[in-house]
Amino acid sequence: MKSLTPLLNIGLNTGFQALSRAATAIIALLLTRLLAAKLGLSGYGDYQIVIAYASFFWVFTDFGLNILTVREMSSEPKKIQNYFSSLLSLRTTLGLVLMTIAAVALTFLPYKPELKLALTIGTATIFLQALTGTCGAIFQVKGKYFYFFLANLIGSLV
Question: What is the DSSP string of 52-84?
Fold first, then answer.
């Protein structure tokens, strides 16, 4: 892909980014349909509580870190490894801390034990989301959205 013109490269990367979003949206729609049919109204409501709870903490793993890091990596290509390592370390730490806070906070919430177990398992996604965001930054800097698309597709299917 190095011989591609910059305009074509931008077009391909934009296409892969759009394809990534479309694929994950379609998979989410299918998953919603399957879960609603299998779990029923109450079970699907519990599933949404797990997603909303984890999502609340996902927000704190980002705080614009990707935007800042991508900007810095783009302006100083020789320091990409340093910036990526720093972002990975920060996000790993943040993910683990937030995962712990989320798990401890569950003791104060009035949910039934089965839902608390699901919420505890769901808190692992906080850490995984932190790692996913970090990897997305390196794909963005390198202009390799095809790999980002593959990672999102595989992650969504799993």
Answer: HHHHHHHGGGTTTHHHHHHHHHHH-GGGHHHHH
